[in-house]
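pasting for ref
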Amino acid sequence: MNNETELKELVKQKYSAIAAQDRSQNLSSCCGATACCTDEVYNIMADDYTQLEGYNSDADLGLGCGLPTAFANIKEGDTVLDLGSGAGNDAFVARKAVGSTGKVIGVDFSEAMIQKARTNADTLNLNNVEFRFGDIEKLPVSDNAIDVVLSNCVLNLVPNKAAVFNEMYRVLKSGGHFSISDIVLIGELPQAVKQTAELYAGCVSGAIQKDMYLETIQQTGFKNVAVRKEKEIIIPQEILESHLSAQEMEDFKNSGVGIYSITVYGEKGCCKPGCC
């Protein structure tokens, strides 16, 4: 078993377990953080979905790191694809935007998450939201079938990010676009800080440099790539203090490096006249 396969299997096992937990537990499972030996939970990654139309609390496991739907320019009648759809949180928000004439497809490689999402869709009586079991590196979706691709704090967990961007490009229609939120790094984190961040926010472990992330998107062929939102992920000082010396804290504070959530937009160029 190679390292990529091992990592994907570990992620699958972890997220299958998360599907059976409640939201407060999940905030301390990946993109949240919990202080060691206490019951205090720090939600250091996820943004607030509760005011968005289409939001369903049963689908919100607190695992995101942005609001990709807010920058996705979804139109009524669109076909939207959500990569790593989990329990359906972003898919249900997108469903509100596409209306009854559109369609939303969620893809996830955790069967437990797929079942949870399907149960949520059945409860909401939504007949134009579909959840498919599959690997986002090999999407179970036809070529040129999608208007908008979404993803929320998922690609950082994938070893081969270039493969995912290539799949996104393949399934998007000419003139289609994506909006994805993800975790990236700016500068090289000191080892002590990196270990602490990974301990309290598992999503950090697969994050790559922001410049490399954006370059990978550009190399795929996407046009008009832009960061629509960027926020620094602040690990609470009391957590850092429990793992770092005063000097290490000071050095990190003055280093200019950090962990960031970015929401990126990009377009698949038009291949025929009038497609845009």
